[in-house]
Input
Amino acid sequence: DSGVTQTPKHLITATGQRVTLRCSPRSGDLSVYWYQQSLDQGLQFLIQYYNGEERAKGNILERFSAQQFPDLHSELNLSSLELGDSALYFCASSVSPTREQFFGPGTRLTVL
Amino acid sequence: AQSVTQPDIHITVSEGASLELRCNYSYGATPYLFWYVQSPGQGLQLLLKYFSGDTLVQGIKGFEAEFKRSQSSFNLRKPSVHWSDAAEYFCAVGDWSGTGNQFYFGTGTSLTVIP
Output
């Protein structure tokens, strides 16, 4: 158990819908990262927050957005969902941007 | 641009045999390197990391990795594989050069262990 929690574990929704994934970092970690893992794209970095501020952006679509709240939990919002958005979404956290990341168990999103 | 290559998509070893998983990276400065393991349906677990210093690093579960700057490699090794080691292994390089911290992951190596 890494100490990073993600909810929900599974999410099934329809195309065009919007969903919110939630992540709570390890106690004391200020940085949160979001990744998407799919069979064809592998593990792709989406976005990073540090203490509430966006720090780095990867291959995140404009339909996707995220934020980190004052209590340091983070949410990833996915809108206008497409079939291709079906994937595992991981959250990771680290104590600072220059340290190793610890991963949560992931949320499996299925878009029908 | 930073990148990580894991040349072996899939490896099969016998239980008790030694293991080496290859990782090559492309990075302009001193790299920060990591190996993670992912069991089916699970998140990624950190096995070991290299930031600086001794080029042979020890990790959890009996794994070790050696950083070779001249070969741009960070190969993962284990002297004797156990059936429970069957999983997906990912090498990653950390890029600290910007304001954030972006990890670049390889495509992974799937390890099968046969009795």
User: Anything to note?
Assistant: Chain B touches chain A at residues 32, 34, 36, 42-46, 49, 90, 94, 96, 98-105, 107-108 (CB under 8 Å). Chain B has a mean pLDDT of 91. Chain B has no helices and twelve strands.
